[in-house]
Amino acid sequence: MQLPLFARYRQFVIISLVFATLFAVSAVAYYKYQQTLDRKTLSNHARIIADDVWAINPAGVENYLRLAMETQHYKSISVSIPGNDHFITLQSPEMTGLAGFLSRTGLIWTKELSKDITHKDLHIGKMQVIQYVQLIFPLLNLLAFYLLLFLLTLFILFLSNRKRTLESLVRERTHSLLESQRRFHDLVNLLPEMVLETNIDGSIRYANSEARKRFGISHENSDGCNLFDFFPADTRQSAQDQFRRNLEQGTLYQDILHDKDHHAFPVLLRSAPIVDASGCIGARLLLIDITERQRMEEQLNRDHKMKAIGLMAGGVAHDLNNILSGIVSYPELLMLDMTEENPLRRPLSIIRKAGLDASEVVADLLTVARGSRGDLEIIDLNVLIQDYLDSPDFEDMRRRFPLVEHSFIPASDLMFLSCSPIHVRKCLMNLVINGFEAIEGKGSIRIVTENVNTTDLQTTHPGLPNDKRYIRITVSDTGKGIEEKELEHIFEPFYSKKVMGRSGTGLGLTVVYNTVRDHDGATRVTSSELGTTFELLFPGTSNAVPLKGKNHLQVLKGNGETVLVIDDEPRQREIATTLLRSLGYQVTTASTGKEAWRYLEKNPADLVVLDMLMGPNQPNGKEIYQQILTINPGQKAIIASGYAEDDDVRETLTMGATAFVPKPYTMNSISRAVYDTLRAPARQHDMAS
């Protein structure tokens, strides 16, 4: 940043002001002195000519005064006596040359002086003169003197400042050099990588703190340590050859080293030669431990593999849900008109349960394909776990494994959890099922919840952010454990050591992994011959759980409201029509967006049930709803799809649709969505937005 002009030239300005002041004071003093001298000189002239004036000797007076006119630069002199005002009158010639020029420009001016002439205290006349004031010449001499003195002072000051600047520069550069050396050592010692300096034969001359810690090198003296001592014996010779080649080529290469405890770890190694006049005398090396990098690469490859499999699975989920709609919905419709004693009720219930189980498999596929953060709610995790332990599903597991005990240890001060409850419950159920099936004979399953801080997780989960608190769910079993070579594969889709088709689908732990990841959490599993422990971490929240009311099926029927069902699948239109009519609604269907638009231009509809995925070359549900809003702003709608909730669904909900109903339809899900939407206030849509 540049300093102000005055700050940069302060000394020059101050010295200039001092010399200017001295010159001004000297000029004023000289002027006053000259004034006094001129008056005194005039008095002397009057006293000298007094005798000649008394004797009335004009010739003597004139001769003297002409001499005085030349020496004192008088322009004119006049002497008057009583009775004769022009006793003597003298006039000097006009000035010429430089003096004439200065006179014409006003730098030489005139002044009038007068003095009485007395003889023995008797007034005998008066002398009057007009004198040229030639102050410019002595002032120029004075100015030249001060300028010379000013320049001499500036020169001395310049030399002094130059000396101080050079001394300061030397001190500053010396300090900078020392600071640079200190900074270099500090930065090198702060690096998480290992930095070494060796001789040409590999003898270590310098090691930073990380290298000393990893290799056990003494801080005071590294003599006696050789770089190649830390290579495995079987690769030592090849490492020496690579080291010499790398000094010439400067390439980055990978190798294996042993630390002070003889633990092998992979490193990336790069070296630069140290050269003096005699040639290469050593090398500087940077060694990067890539253990964590390799682990993350393996994790990334696994994530890519899971994503690819998930996308493939998600591709068939929509069609499977459409097929399952008839298996789930029609038995439910048939059972509405049956008594509990009807012999067909149990077979229909089994068919419906099988369809729902199949839809759960499809839901797992969708979780793998599209994630699990569709509908977030704030829940009490302890309540969710206890509800599962009280559910018929868990009771079935207990009956299947009567020798397995279970325990639940909830944290009394557990934070709340913002999550998709159905997916978190699925995680818990999958882990519990795995625990039951891993135990042969007697055993136990233990579920624990607790709050944990990120600082307590740095060892096991170093990648978690430091500003969050987490809820930890621990599910432990006393089963036979998982082999170490299997642990890195257990979260992959369809990877299972169980009998496929008889116990699970191979997606259970994949759903666990994806669900935890989609909730910004972390998963850890440890296993031994004494059993297996799964730890799930979810970010906690201090927000309270909202209270929810309950609606029962009998109060969710309609009152003859009109519903337009838009779906390109005839079977889905028929199922939706049958379900909604059984609930008391008037139903009209449309197989395309154009058909729906033509209908709504002529007929009102209290509600639109809109399929998101339409046939080939047709607008999807979002585009159909956009056009509907131009016809009827504020049109109430719910979205139905056999696929997971995606960006199009969320945008359609933002535009004004009220709810998302997954396929296959169930009586409870569609009746609740339709009932709540019809009774919700209309949302006006601003098409300009």
TrEMBL record:
Histidine kinase domain sequence ranges: 315-542
Start and end residues of each PAS domain: 180-250
PANTHER family: C4-DICARBOXYLATE TRANSPORT SENSOR PROTEIN DCTB (PTHR43065:SF46), SENSOR HISTIDINE KINASE (PTHR43065)
Pfam families found in the cross-reference section: HATPase_c, PAS_4, Response_reg
SUPFAM superfamilies: ATPase domain of HSP90 chaperone/DNA topoisomerase II/histidine kinase, CheY-like, Homodimeric domain of signal transducing histidine kinase, PYP-like sensor domain (PAS domain)
Gene3D superfamilies for the chain: 1.10.287.130, 3.40.50.2300, Histidine kinase-like ATPase, C-terminal domain, PAS domain
Cited CDD domains: HisKA (cd00082), PAS (cd00130), REC (cd00156)
GO terms for MF: ATP binding; phosphorelay sensor kinase activity
PROSITE patterns hit by this protein: HIS_KIN (PS50109), PAC (PS50113), PAS (PS50112), RESPONSE_REGULATORY (PS50110)
Residue numbers of 4-aspartylphosphate PTMs: 611
The PAC domain, residue ranges: 251-302
Catalyzed reaction equations: ATP + protein L-histidine = ADP + protein N-phospho-L-histidine
Protein name, UniProt field: histidine kinase
Record EC number: 2.7.13.3
